[in-house]
């Protein structure tokens, strides 16, 4: 090998050896997904800090300033009863994220134990869980959520509960498949032969090896729940006044779109941005954490 070749090899970045460092190394190579992650972080940070950065509270209304065009006083104008659109946009993002994260948390709390139990125990437990998943999958998710809310009533708590009823399926199916694949691996059988109990096997060997795929599912579920909450709120079945959400803001703008399009365009753009960026982040994590790719070998592709 020539001296130039040796120098070029030495200049190549060393491949990270840690699993998570290697995953980040693969993820960071895609600039579009890095940009998507940065955009999502900015939106989340602005929504979380809404009480600090919003010009006014979301429920402050000034009838004399209703349907104002964007101006230095109101950067995105005001709605039909004089509430600042930018403030409601920031608080609406906070509401949408709160609903999505709460739904995902409930889905994980229900779906993960059911999936692990089905995959590890087998027998009638697996049969019952699989039948329950099949029945739940056969029902249209959004229509089922609408039915539950029509029975329970609208509101943020009922919206979270209704969406969680249909969101647990994906974590459950994932964990069942992962547990079935892991329970016959050599390290699990070795621990079992050494006298490890079921709880030890699950906590020390099964769950740690399913963290990567579970993170991907969670990341991809969050934008779906944001869109589902927006759909319910658009139909008037989600968030109650005066609490804003992006879907509710779109619904309230329908009557004014021809004369004041910003009222509907702003929340629609935020929904699209959040769903798109989080979906790109989820796809990027899925590729980065895919074991079939193996450890990176260094160099540029």
From TrEMBL:
It is found in: Cell membrane. CDD domains: TM_PBP2. Residues 93-282 form the ABC transmembrane type-1 domain. One of its GO terms (biological process) is transmembrane transport. Pfam families: BPD_transp_1 (PF00528), OppC_N (PF12911). It is a multi-pass membrane protein. The keyword Nucleotide-binding does not apply. The chain crosses the membrane at residues 34-54, 99-121, 141-169, 214-239, 259-281. InterPro entries: BP-dependent_transpt_permease, MetI-like, MetI-like_sf, OppC_N. It comes from the Bacteria. GO terms for cellular component: plasma membrane. PROSITE patterns: ABC_TM1. Keywords: Cell membrane, Membrane, Transmembrane, Transmembrane helix, Transport. Belongs to the binding-protein-dependent transport system permease family. This is ABC transporter permease. It comes from Candidatus Segetimicrobium genomatis. The lineage of its organism: Bacteria, Bacillati, Candidatus Sysuimicrobiota, Candidatus Sysuimicrobiia, Candidatus Sysuimicrobiales.
